[in-house]
Design goal:
Strand content: under 5%
Helix content: over 70%
Distance between the termini: 50 Å
Amino acid sequence: MSLLDQLDQLDQLDQLHQQLGPMSWPLLLCSVITLALWLERSLSLLWTSLRGEQEKRQLRLDGNAYPQAEMTAPKSLILQGCSLLARHRGCDKNTREDLATVWLQQQRRRLHSGLRVLTLVGVISPLLGLLGTVLGLIEMFRSIGASGDPVTPALLADGLGLAMSTTAVGLLIALPAIAGAQLFGLWADRLIDKLTDELNRCNLHLEGVQLGGSRS
């Protein structure tokens, strides 16, 4: 990166700071957190979903895949859960169900990781924007009161526009943060439901009960 590019970026950051005032850095931090969590959750849940569908089809095609799951190196959550149950096939059915329940809770927490932070960012960002607006209005009226020049509509419009910009930025950050928390939460719950269904099938298979067909 050339020196001119660096100076141009610094100039843009300075303009952003002038528009957003003291709330520029907190809002910038919130936007970075939102973007990072969006990318991380999207890639993680997408990989888990695609890998799980592949393993599910393999389990449906191979009737002996459930008891052989413990002999493979688990890569997907479905194989990890089936491998766990296969390793404890000597236990009774209720014990394996309790074991599966504890394991599913651990996976639920992992799949929901970061969603509370997204929700928190979605709640805090509009408040930071509103605080920036209030501070901007206070500074604008203080400057008008200290000035001896006549107050014109253009002067008020410029001041109000700069003051309201923090509220707009806060809302722009909050919308994807809250939407992401809800969408990723639904996605994770869907994956947990599919995983629970597959573990139930595996547990029944270890009991000698064969189920025909599949459910998407």
